[in-house]
Amino acid sequence: MNTEQRLTRVFVELADTLVDEFDALDFLHTLTERTVELLPADAAGVILTDQHGHLQVVASTSNRAQLLELFELQSAEGPCLDCFTTGTKVANVAPEAARTRWPRFSAAAVEAGYSSTHALPLRLRDQVIGAMNLFCVDRTSLSDDDLMLGQALADVATIGLLQERAVRQSELVAEQLQTALNTRVLIEQAKGVLLARAGVDVDEAFRLMRDYSRRNSIRLKETASRVIDDAISVEELNGN
């Protein structure tokens, strides 16, 4: 499959997520996964505003990236926050400049194994609803083409969230995003249950729940609830 065919497939996949049973959390995880596949990044994550205007981590390609994003919000500094505040991309910041601009975040990023970080806004016109972080193990610079593609993916996600089911009123959009945040809390609890019950690491736990949800055409929230209630065995999650 050539690059053009791959790009077409990814954009069709994101568009196909906008169905009657739209799952915002699964949609955003698909966005982060495909972004990592298409761009020279090792991990990605998304932060969004909730119905109270507070930023929350809602999707990450790995637990390591998620923890770093949570630290970014808690320390109130980092490229993703600057990106959200300004509504413009933050990319290719030199390491020395990054350490000066975000000293605590930069130290945490290095400790997590990332040498460079970039951020793209989730924005439609003047409305910014979040931002997407790109984490790179090496000191990676993104080309203009990389940034254009990443922004296109972020734009598709923004349009999908804002226009799903023709929802244009801000309170309904906020309700949808809040549902995704509430689902994330359940999923984190279910990850802990699987870790304690079967020794499954948190990244594998999420993959198992997501695959189970897709195989059985149910929402991630329902799968997580079943895991917490001990209504699904690890064998069933594995498809056995």
CATH architecture of the largest domain: 2-Layer Sandwich
Morphology call: globular
Number of domains: 2
Query: What is the terminal separation in angstroms?
Result: 32 Å
**Largest sheet at a glance?**
4 strands, antiparallel
Report helical residue fraction: 55-70%
- List unreliable stretches of 5+ residues: none
The sequence of SSEs as H and E is: HHEEHHHHEEHHHHH
User: C-alpha Rg, in Å?
Assistant: 18 Å
Measured by DSSP, the beta-strand proportion falls in 5-15%
If you had to describe this structure to a student in words, what would you say it looks like?
Helix content is 60%, strand content 13%. The chain has 11 helices and 4 strands, in the order ααββααααββααααα. With 240 residues, it is an alpha+beta fold. The protein starts with a helix and ends with a helix. A 4-stranded antiparallel β-sheet has the order 2-1-4-3, sandwiched between helices. The protein has 2 domains: 165 residues, Beta-Lactamase (2-Layer Sandwich), CATH 3.30.450.40; 57 residues, Arc Repressor Mutant, subunit A. The longest helix has 29 residues.
Set out the fold topology.
Layout (H helix, E strand, L loop, with lengths): L2 H14 L7 H15 L4 E7 L5 E6 L2 H13 L3 H8 L8 H7 L1 H10 L3 E9 L2 E10 L7 H20 L6 H29 L3 H15 L3 H9 L5 H4 L3
Antiparallel strand pairs: 1-2, 1-4, 3-4
Helix pairs in contact: 2-7, 3-6, 5-6, 8-9, 8-10, 9-10
